[in-house]
Amino acid sequence: MKLTRYRSARAAGALALALAFAAGATGLLGGAAAQAQEATSGTLEFSGDAGDYISGGQSYSYSTDAQDRLDVTADSDHQHVSVAVTGAHGDWWYLDLAAPQGQALEPGTYEGATRYPFNGPAEPGLSLDGNGRGCNTLTGSFTVSKADFGPNGYVEALDATYEQHCEGGTAALRGEVHIANPAPPATLDLGIAVAPDGTASTLNGKATVHGTVSCNKPVRIDVTGNVTQVKKGVIVRGSYSTSVDCAPGDPVAWTAQADPSGTTPFRRGDVEVSAQARASDPDYAGQSATDSQTVAVHLVKG
Length: 302
Fold this sequence. Notes:
By secondary structure, the protein is mainly β. About 5% of the residues lie in helices and about 55% in strands. It contains 1 helix and 19 strands. It has one helix at about 1-20, and strands spanning about 35-40, 40-50, 60-65, 70-75, 80-85, 90-100, 110-115, 125-130, 140-150, 155-165, 175-180, 190-195, 195-200, 205-215, 220-230, 235-245, 250-260, 270-280, 290-300. The chain has an 11-stranded mixed sheet with strand order 1-4-5-6-8-7-9-10-11-2-3, with no helix packed on it. A 7-stranded mixed β-barrel has the order 13-14-17-16-15-18-19. The relative contact order is 0.14. Mean pLDDT is about 90; it is low at about 1-30. Keywords: Signal.
């Protein structure tokens, strides 16, 4: 019966969290969570008293050295860290540590923790569950001795101990976690420039514009924008798009054609060109970078 209630609560919590993300809310989770990263080096260990429901009074130990997988993720404001263990022999466990709402997780002792993610705004959050076992309610505490973060929820290092009690019982589960990853990669940085010259085709009325993009890591950059011209009181607009491969170093050239949206063609003369560069960051899943520029461009007949 305890496991049934736990699964129902976990499913309801997952649905609530999914709806919160869809609505752009942060709520109990703080900032948006980053993609989980596999720990380069890490251990998670715990043991429990004879009456502890989660451990069953047994001891468990997992390590990347023993071919167990530890995935770690944090939210963007570093309030919450989650460690997921996939054991080499089929075990699975989840550890969640969260500072009170509005606070970043940092070295210190967090007393009065309750079950994450249902902890109150002023309460720390804690949960160790897995292998089909979880607490409906819990109390406990945890101590963080090291918590180093990078951008976009990257976890460089985490060292913590924790203690939890299921359902208000006196039996305790005690454990510790240690995560070590390389220094975080730099975030993606893009640049875009629009050349001051272009051409207006006398054959099809399209405007050809060009420029350069730059980047600090190899990526495929999408370049999009609009060309706007006013001729004899008529506004002519057209959009364009292209993609180019970029590598750090010298700027990379791009060229694109804007097709006028109406029947009036682009003609030689001045136009306004807006351009935006966008690319996904290869080191941070789900993150992208952009840069934009709007300039005056003179078109000649082409």
